[in-house]
Amino acid sequence: MLTKYNLKLPHAVFSGEDALENIPAILAENAVRRLAVFTDKGIEGAGLLELPMAQVRKAGVETILLDDLPAEPSYLEAQKLVDQCKASGADFILAVGGGSVMDTAKLSSILMTDEYGIRELLETPGRARKCMKTLMIPTTAGTGSEATPNAIVAVPEKQLKIGIVNAEMIADYVILDAEMIRKLPRKIAAATGVDALAHAIECFTGNKANPFSDLYAMGALEMIFDNIDRACDDPEDMDAKRQMQIASFYAGIAITAAGTTAVHALSYPLGGKYHIAHGVSNAILLAPVMRFNEPACRDRLSAVYDRCFRGKAQTQEEKSAAVIARLEGIVKHLNIPTSLQGFGVPKEDLEDLVRSGMEVQRLLVNNPRLVTADDARRLYQEVL
Fold first, then answer.
1. In whole angstroms, what separates CA 372 from the centre of its chain?
2. Which of 88, 89, 35 is nearest to 58 (CA)?
3. Domain assignment present for 225
4. Same domain for 360 and 256?
5. Domains held by the chain: number
6. Domain that holds residue 308
7. Both 45 and 98 in a single domain?
8. CA 273 – CA 21 distance, rounded (Å)
9. CA neighbours within 13 Å on the CB side: how many for 101?
């Protein structure tokens, strides 16, 4: 656990019923004249963009729509939208979407310059400074991007996803309105929900855990364990969905204060090379990595049991085993794959996976148990 730590948060967060109604006041407060709206075709097609845009129209500001963004974009694809935003003359950014949309919007907020682009930030992320304020409205309950200083992009030449981390990207405003996730398909709700679960459990058990991250990680875990099944299974359970939305935000704060570990590190090559959805790749690796880590974080997992399960297990070993079994049970209940079979990942690619996964030292150094190349190989073999 860290002995020195800090916490950086969005300037203002609005949640609860009709939270979207705060949009006009936010735009007025910032004297916005031209608004860059980041989203994607799926959000538009589902009719979700109309909910916040109805409030934007009340504010009477001019808008430019930036929606040509694929799922799990490469840094080159994200750069195209950054360039469009830069040329638009916008003076404020609104992001309506999942992690990729919000990450691209955050990158745009620090890249209103011709001196460097996303490619340069892959190597020196700290050089950028915020140029434009942002409002994040997540349409999933999982990525936590609305709370973090991180932006994840695929790097095709490395067949890897890389996280750009810069505190300047933390959102200025966040709106958590459960109406934005009311009609979220179960498959997406499940994958993103388990992503939030991974964020919380990794932050709580990682080497960089601290009192700030623990507060939010444990709060997220309690809400996720209590609500994820209902939020995914029952389209009408808005209370469970609202709890998952808040839990996702809490887990994002935990990332900001501590960071994820080997689950995310080893999942990055799966998204970068095979384009497996981020939440799915994390779900596949979640239980195997936590079983591997268990001897090094048994006390932390036992504390999760005591807070979230309130069951009859007695020893720390029993408690930590019960937590890992619950993680595995959630993934199976939500019908998320538990192996890479069906994703076109040939066994011959094992060494490439190991090599790429071991490159993500930014996260591996936070893992409670040292991960060697042999360990990574065994973990990948377990899920191939």
1. 25
2. 35
3. yes
4. yes
5. 2
6. 186-383
7. yes
8. 41
9. 26
Domain endpoint, select from 162, 181, 200: 181
The one-letter amino acid code at 98 reads G
Say whether both 235 and 129 belong to one domain. Answer: no
The answer to the question of residue 6 being in a domain is no
Contacts with 244 (C-beta within 8 Å, 6 or more apart), sequence order: 141, 142, 181, 189, 193, 196, 223, 224, 227, 228, 231
Q: What pLDDT shows up at residue 310?
A: 82
Look at residues 84, 59, 376, 367 and name the one whose alpha carbon lies nearest to residue 208: 367
Burial classification of residue 309, based on how many CB atoms lie within 10 Å of its CB (0-12 exposed, 13-18 middle, 19 or more buried): middle
Does some domain include residue 3? Answer: no
Find where tokens 């049970």 sit: 329
- Over residues 270-298, the mean pLDDT reads 96
Please determine, for residue 356, whether its predicted confidence score (pLDDT) is greater than 90: yes
185 three-state secondary structure: coil
Residue 36, helix vs strand vs coil? strand
Same domain, 237 and 319: yes
For the segment 196-238, what is each residue's pLDDT rounded down to a tens digit? 999 999 999 999 999 999 999 999 999 999 999 999 999 999 9
Which among 260, 298, 307 is positioned nearest to 279, based on CA atoms? 260
Decide if 296 contacts 202 (C-beta within 8 A): no
**Same domain, yes or no, for 89 and 235?**
no
d(CA 170, CA 173): 9
3-state secondary structure string across 200-213: HHHHHHCCCCCHHH
- Say yes or no: 151 and 246 in one domain: no
As a whole number of angstroms, the distance between CA 150 and CA 141 comes to 17
Regarding whether 144 and 202 lie in a shared domain, the answer is no
> What pLDDT, on a 0 to 100 scale, did the predictor assign at position 15?
97
Do 204 and 341 belong together in one domain? yes
User: Under a CB-based contact definition with an 8 Å cutoff, are residues 69 and 85 in contact?
Assistant: no
pTM confidence score = 0.97
